[in-house]
Structure formats: structure tokens, C-alpha cells
Amino acid sequence: MTNTETTPAADKLNFKKVMPVLVIILVDLLGLSIIVPLMPLYAARFGANAFVIGILGSTYPFMQFIGAPVLGRLSDRVGRRPVLLVSQLGTFLGFILLGFANALPLLFISRIIDGLSGANISTAQAVMTDLTTPETRTQGLGLIGAAFGMGFILGPIIAFAVLLATGESYQAVAFTAAFFSLASILLTFFWLPESRNPQKNNPSGKSPFSFQAMYQSLSRPTIGILLVLMFAQQLAFGGYEQMFSLFALNRLGMGARDTSGLFVLAGLFIVAIQAGFIGRWSKKYGDRWLVMLGLSTLAVGLILTASTPQIPVPWYNQAKITAEMQGQASTQIINVSLPPETQKGWTGIIWVLIASFPAALGGGVLHPAINSLITKSAGKEEVGGILGVSAGFYSAANAITPLFFGSLFQWFGAPVPFFIGGLLLAVLWVIAVRNVKPPEALQT
After folding, report:
1. In a domain, 323, yes or no
2. Within a domain: residue 10?
3. What is the pLDDT of residue 119?
4. Average pLDDT of the residues in 348-367
């Protein structure tokens, strides 16, 4: 009798309990989503080419690769709330410095500060894991992804409005991002309760972090393959995220406001998937099925993106885009080639929109599905640490991919990074079919 009464409760997510973390991560991600799509264009204003922009893009995740596992393991010892506050403070300071940046080196320094303290998402995932059961964990992590998607809907809209109101001032966008970052700090401080009792839940007294711990996690037969998969899929998807604004500029002649609109559409689709479908799909088909779905659709989306014809949008004006990219520094050299004004039309933008649907679907389901499998194969006392390790591998991929794909973009052309990313994911799908086991088979 007891089992029949408790099982349905274990299958249901307690929305009242998880609502604070969802609201906080949404507000936090508003700041991120306002500025991140503009970062390549921000750097281009200072004369950076695609390779230098790739180095800038790798700065934050490389620093996060160092910082996130430390903070993740630390959250197992001292609690989630103080670690989340520290990471949010670093993000806030990074955005403030970005707003005052008047040279390329300051952009790098701002991303270093933000990256070293960048455990916002992994710590929020650890809080969600504390508050969910194994049956509801994928749904809970999917809702964090939905908050991310909602941020990428509202953030670009806010960025568009700020750019419109300030005459294309990127500095104003940075300060707006800092405002939302400050709001997330206040919400965390006054609203988010601690989800973990360090004294009760971490009796082992493990050290905060060591690279040996990362190697040990990688060597575990079940967790290791999932960490490799997390790294490899983000290596491909990170190239899509980092290079898309430059790709749209080069192939379609789209500036910051136009690109923000595409991020809004992608965000709407991701929210629909992660909030409305991923929980149901996980319960019906399992996390392994979600991983296979994500790898295959993301591969299709990237290859379709790479095939986009170079046909500028009908409203493209080369002189206007050049002036936007130069900003106030009219003597700066723009190192991203723009398309000619001949043969403008709708074919290119329609092609990109079609390609964005499978890409957004794959990107939307992979991260929560893989992390859910990881937490189900880890001990409860090490969830924060193992999610920090997962964030570390995720960040390492994000650190490598801008350099690698930025070089491909610069030396071989805009479509090449997306085509190679799609091929990599196709190979990963074959590997995952043979090596990723369903949750009930995960034993460590």
C-alpha cells in the first residue's frame, strides 16, 4: 500500500520547490544572452579577425574549465548557495568591465574574470539534482535548459531594444547585462534557500578539486563515456554558437539586430522542446533515446547550415553594415568579408531558418539528457562534483572550438566549420549507439 502511494509522488516534479532556482537562472541568463551573441561583433569593432575572435571566444570557457570543477566540488562541501553567489558576482564584474572596455585587451580581461567564477549553470544543475528524484531529474534539468532558452528569447529582444534606443551602443548592452546579473545576485541572496546540508551530506571530506579527480571520473566506465560525449558534442555545437553571428554576417549580410532576431526564434523552439516535451520524452523513451535524437538532428542542422547559399537578405545595405561594425571608431578595419549587394533575396534566410530547427532540437535535448545520465550513475554525495567535472569538459570543448573553428572560418571559409561539426556528430551517433547504455543499465 505504501509503495502505490509514494511511487506517483516520486514521478511528479515539485514545481513549487524548484521555482526559485528556475527564476534565478532565467534572470542570470538574461545577462548572458544579451551580450554573448554580440561578442564576435564587439571584437570585430576593434579590428579582430575570425581567428582572434575565436581566441576571445575560448577565453571564457578555458577559464571556466579551471574554475567550474573547483566550485562544483566546493559546493558539495560548503553548500550550493554561497558558490552560486560567488559565480554570479564574477559574472557581474565581468559585464561591468565589458561596458567600460575601449580596447580589445579589456574584452579579454572581462571574459577571464567571468570564466574563472563561471559555475552558475553547473551549480544550478546541482541544486536541481538535490530537489528532484531520479524519475523527475531529466525533466528538472530540462527546465533549466528551458530557462536558458527563455533567456535567449528575451535577452536578444532586450539587446535589440537597447541597440535601437542607443544608436547601436554595445557598451549600453553590456551595462544592461550587468543590471540583470546584479538582479540575479539579489534574488539568490534573498530568495534561494540552501538545498544541501554539507555536514550531513558530505562526510567524506574530499578535497575541493584535483585534475586527478577529473581523470578518475573519465576512467569510470559509465560516466567516462558520457563525459567524452559531453565534450565531443559541445565541440561541434560550440562552433555553431560561437561562429553563427559571423556566418550570418558573411553569408547573409545580417548585423547585430538581425542576428538577435534569429536567436529569439531559436530560443522559442528550445523552450517549447525543453519545457513541453523533454520530460515526457524522457519518461516514455528514456534518456538514451534523447541522446540519439539530439546527435542526429544536430548533425543534420549543422550540415544544412553549412550549405546556406550566399544570398544577402532583401534589406541588406553594405554601407550601413560597415558603419555599424565600425561603430564610433570609424578608422577601424573590419576583418570579416561582407557579401556583395547583388542577388539579394529570401533564399538564404529561409534556408538558415529551416536549418535552425534541427540544430536547436539537437542542442536543446543533448545537454540535459547527458547530464541526467551522468547524475543517475553517480553517488548522491558527489553530484555537485561530478556536474562540475561535466561542466569542466563542456567548458574545455568551448575553449578549443573557437580556436579550431575560428581558424577554419578564417582560412577555409564560413561554411567549413559547420560542415565539419556535422560530420563529427554523425560519427558520434555511431559511437553512442554502441556505447551509451539506458539508465537502468548504468552501474558504477
Report:
1. yes
2. no
3. 64
4. 90
In a domain, 199, yes or no: no
pLDDT in tens, 373-432: 887 777 666 666 777 778 778 878 877 887 788 888 888 888 999 999 999 899 988 888
**Count of the separate structural domains present in the chain:** 1
d(CA 109, CA 194): 32
pLDDT at 309 over 70: yes
The CATH number for 184's domain is: 1.20.1250.20
Domain contains 113 = yes
Give the domain range for residue 359: 16-192+210-439
Residues 6+ apart with CB under 8 A from 100: 106, 171
The tens digit of pLDDT for each residue in 390-402 reads 877 887 887 788 7
**Residue whose C-alpha cell is 558603419:** 323
pTM score, two decimals?
Answer: 0.68
